[in-house]
Amino acid sequence: EKGGYEHFMIKEIYEQPKAVRETMSSRLAKDDSSVLLDELKWNKHDLKAFKKIFIVACGTAYHAGVVGKYYIEKLARIPVEVDIASEFRYRSPLLDENNLTIVISQSGETSDTLAALKEAKRLGSRTLAVTNVVGSSIAREADNVIYTWAGPEIAVASTKAYTTQLVTMFMLAVYMADLKATVSPERSKELIKALRNLPGQLHEILEDVEPIKTFAQRYGFNEDVFFIGRSLDYAVALEGSLKLKEISYIHAEAYAAGELKHGTLALIIEGVPVIALATQSDVYEKTLSNIKEVKARDAVVIGLALKGDKQIEKYVDHTIYIPDTDQLLAPILAVIPLQLLAYYAAVTRGCDVDKPRNLAKSVTVE
Ligand code: F6R
User: Per the database entry, which stretches of residues form a coiled coil (predicted)?
Assistant: First the structure.
């Protein structure tokens, strides 16, 4: 059942080109002019009614929500608040019929996410579920559902569910942007074309994992690792750090790169590995200056950048490249080396990769 792979997690990592392709395939117009989300049937008046959107989820799905906020705000220009389900449900959120609440859940059964969805409905909000399991509790409870077509995810650590959630949030944002005319038809086409390139680019990353395996073996016995990045790179850093913690038990922290000097820089000492994500061109120079700050404390910096970026090599100890893409889509590629790093670090340390201690695949109790 593991199809020749040693663990479900690595099998699922390798299934991402297919999972991403299936999630988008029937939802893009043949001429790349638009995203077709027939499951929604919204018109521009429906969208006008959404004064604010809430995205609510747990764990990795929450991290997909952080990226989703960025997509919707940037493309569709609707304000978005992202929250952790166990916080949202108890904080008396200010919601009514002028809001849309999007819940994201691979399993569709996470109890806090389901409770958050019920609370949003009770307050009159419209609701949309993004889930991977057809007919799950969350799918049944929401007004509308968009399924991610990742296929069954068995490993506790979520991988292909996350990348398909990102693709879904991206398609949703482009769909809303088209309806609201907040992006030009040319830009929309360019984004859809970039989306179509992802499966091939994911495949390209997965063809050469040796360098990442080497880093994992080399740094797998460090007890602390930091992930830094700005804007979408920060969102991916959050996910990279969770992945590493949960399966390799290495203490990892993700920091918005500009926030380091407000405290965390005190922890950066000689030899501490720092994974610095630098895929976002609009904050690239700022990220470089944060890289210089950690280098000045003798951290070992692994840069993660888009292919063709030669500048970064001057500032870091090692570089991992991902194929060039629109910066909005970079998270979908950038997370792959981080998943692999977590996987190989866990293998190096002899951890039970598919069933990490204390964790369950689906958290159906509070
Ligand atoms: C981490 C992981 C968890 C889940 C979280 C939500 O790798 O898998 O953080 O993302 O428990 O689960 P779902 O998406 O099923 O609601």
Answer: none
